[in-house]
Amino acid sequence: MKKNVLYLLPFIFFINHLSAQSMLWHGKGRIVISADGNEHDHDDWAATALSLAIIAAKKLQDQLPVYIYSDHIWGSNHEHPGVNGITPYEQIKESALKGGKMFGFKHTRFICAVDNPELAYEALKEQINQSSASNPLFIIVAGPVHVIGEAISRADSSSRKFVTLISTTDKWNNTHADEPYLEWENHTGWTLDEISDHFAAAVGGGLKIVLIQSQNPGLKRNWHEYEWLMNAPERNDPFYKKGSWDWLFNRLCMSTKPMGEDRDYYYAIDASDAGKVIFLLTGNEKASPQTCYEIMKEPISTMAIPKLKD
Question: What's the pLDDT tens digit per position in 285-307?
């Protein structure tokens, strides 16, 4: 499918240098997120829930037509034991489906890719094919890029120039399809280098790829830094469904990881992939728990938002 690939990392970093300087979201278009969470790391249990909350605070639920979760299509529940007897497959399902209900995503299709990869490929392909200058598509990479790459490969070539792919310089999501590292894994698929080589603007494919810095330093933080979800007065804002902030905090806590050493030992919440959503919507590449609070405490009014001209 993708043999004899030339690696274009210098090109991708150049795109990052140019694109990360300006705002990507201009009040029009759609967002699709592709996340894993069913295998290996458990950060997406938190990042999925937080991403949905951030999008809801911007009143953009209807601009998220598709949310793909469990996009590690090669298997679930091998490396991580889950939490409280609940497997990773079920944990990410809880974050996606319950998160959609908690934050008002009435029209979003939530697709479990590991259950039906073809459904995920085709749903994203359809979104790409709908893209135009007045209706661009932004794809957030929050898991291995194989599902995204397969959808792009199937899409109309004329639509790809209206699509922007957002990832980070962290290697894992960008390369894992071709770099399985556990004994039970034996798979291959699309990587970000291969997507770039086939479809990026520099090779005539039109696709835009934006890489931002790792979001781990800003959003993988001591759980106390997210405690505002439990005590901030804005948690009772009628904009939000009652109990949604409590639910979100509990979801974030499912991702906690031991950090530090000796007396500096603490548990960190890891919601790092949500930083890509924050970057898309605000241009802020250095998100923190405080950034999330600032967004959520002042949700967009229910008043109509004037559309920008094309």
Answer: 999 999 999 999 999 854 333 44
Residue 9 and residue 202: Cα distance in Å, rounded? 12
- The alpha-helical segments, DSSP class H, found in the chain are 9-19, 43-57, 88-93, 99-102, 117-129, 146-154, 172-175, 192-199, 216-219, 228-231, 244-253, 274-282, 289-297
**CB-based burial label for 144 (10 Å; 0-12, 13-18, 19+):** buried
Q: Which residues partner with 83 through β-bridges?
A: 86
User: What is the pTM for the complete model shown?
Assistant: 0.90
CATH domain 9-216 topology: Rossmann fold (3.40.50)
Cα(228)–Cα(293) distance, integer angstroms: 7
The residue type at 20: A
Cα 217 from Cα 229, distance rounded (Å): 20
Three-state secondary-structure class, residue 120: helix
In the chain, where the domains are located: 9-216
